[in-house]
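4.2 Preliminary Data

To establish feasibility before requesting continued support, the project team ran the inverse folding procedure on a target of 359 residues. The structure was first converted into the token representation described in Section 3, and no sequence information of any kind was made available to the design step. The complete token record follows.
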């Protein structure tokens, strides 16, 4: 994009607080230069407050510095009138004027996309299901969107990446700010193979009020939202509500009735959300088709000995001694099999010598 055009878009985004533009305004003024160069006629669709702000805007130094920050970070700005702007995001009530983007797959924002979200403090079941569904969707060519938070979000991104597919992380910070810090490696992996997105200016730090605004973009770029595990009051449930408002499909994974973390998802199902247990279920709800089969545990390339060990594992972590006992192998052989399976990404050893499936 021409720098002159970009500076007017950045100025417009600077004036209009997050979520305040309204798609009517943005659809009418696809050339924001007219707002700053023109006249009261061009301002007629704006509120008096915003019209006055446009007339009096003089923070061009910030605009120039912001362009420099974007370039220094290797990021891009995708404006509302850019062909690369997600078409489905234009449909929501308060689309962002522009999106900051960073990553290797900037041209993937108009591919079939599903959001997969959940609690930051999931059970092992929630982590495993989030990863498994994301892996299945990505392996069938669907882009997986989430918020790069700890827990279910991180598991969804990792599952998509493990399948060699695309994933989009929508941040509540600038695209050059990694949050949470312990997801730094995940951030790097997403930038290397997918995309991180934000409507917040560069260097924006995490603030509690950023994340509810961010959630409307997660649902807005997606045809549907899958909630894996979530208490009643959570960001994931807010994303589901925003999805309904945006006329998106809402899906939920059933969980234990005794688990607080499943109260939200089970409640969504009671209220009419689609019950889903696999990527194939999600594909069916959304009407997506794929020539690629879903990657499932049954189709993994397990050796005969690995298959024996795999079949000893359930949905919850198992102590290594119990696994060895059930498998019936000598301890040394069983340990070697477990190491090989962990290297292949089929299982992980947790603290306390507990073994979990990753698929």
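Position-by-position output of the design step:
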């Amino acid at each position: 994009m021409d720098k002159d055009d970009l500076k007017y878009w950045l100025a417009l985004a600077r004036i209009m607080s997050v979520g305040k533009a309204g798609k009517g305004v943005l659809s009418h003024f696809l050339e924001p230069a007219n707002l700053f160069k023109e006249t009261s006629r061009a301002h007629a669709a704006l509120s008096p407050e915003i019209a006055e702000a446009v007339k009096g805007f003089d923070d061009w130094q910030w605009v120039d510095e912001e362009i420099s920050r974007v370039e220094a970070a290797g990021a891009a700005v995708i404006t509302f009138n850019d062909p690369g702007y997600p078409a489905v995001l234009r449909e929501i009530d308060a689309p962002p004027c522009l999106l900051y983007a960073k990553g290797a797959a900037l041209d993937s924002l108009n591919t079939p996309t599903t959001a997969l979200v959940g609690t930051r403090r999931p059970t092992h079941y929630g982590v495993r299901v989030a990863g498994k569904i994301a892996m299945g969707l990505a392996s069938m060519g669907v882009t997986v969107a989430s918020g790069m938070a700890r827990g279910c979000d991180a598991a969804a991104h990792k599952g998509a990446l493990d399948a060699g597919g695309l994933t989009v992380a929508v941040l509540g910070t600038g695209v050059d700010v990694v949050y949470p810090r312990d997801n730094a490696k995940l951030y790097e992996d997403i930038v290397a193979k997918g995309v991180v997105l934000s409507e917040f200016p560069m260097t924006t730090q995490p603030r509690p009020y950023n994340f509810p605004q961010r959630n409307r973009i997660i649902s807005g770029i997606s045809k549907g939202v899958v909630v894996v595990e979530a208490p009643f009051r959570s960001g994931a449930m807010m994303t589901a509500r925003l999805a309904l408002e945006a006329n998106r499909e809402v899906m939920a994974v059933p969980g234990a009735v005794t688990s607080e973390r499943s109260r939200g998802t089970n409640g969504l199902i009671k209220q009419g959300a689609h019950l889903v247990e696999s990527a194939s279920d999600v594909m069916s709800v959304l009407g997506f088709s794929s020539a690629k089969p879903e990657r499932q545990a049954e189709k993994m390339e397990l050796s005969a000995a690995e298959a024996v060990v795999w079949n000893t594992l359930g949905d919850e972590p198992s102590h290594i001694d119990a696994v060895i006992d059930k498998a019936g192998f000598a301890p040394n052989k069983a340990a070697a099999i477990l190491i090989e399976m962990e290297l292949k990404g089929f299982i992980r050893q947790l603290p306390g010598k507990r073994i979990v499936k990753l698929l």
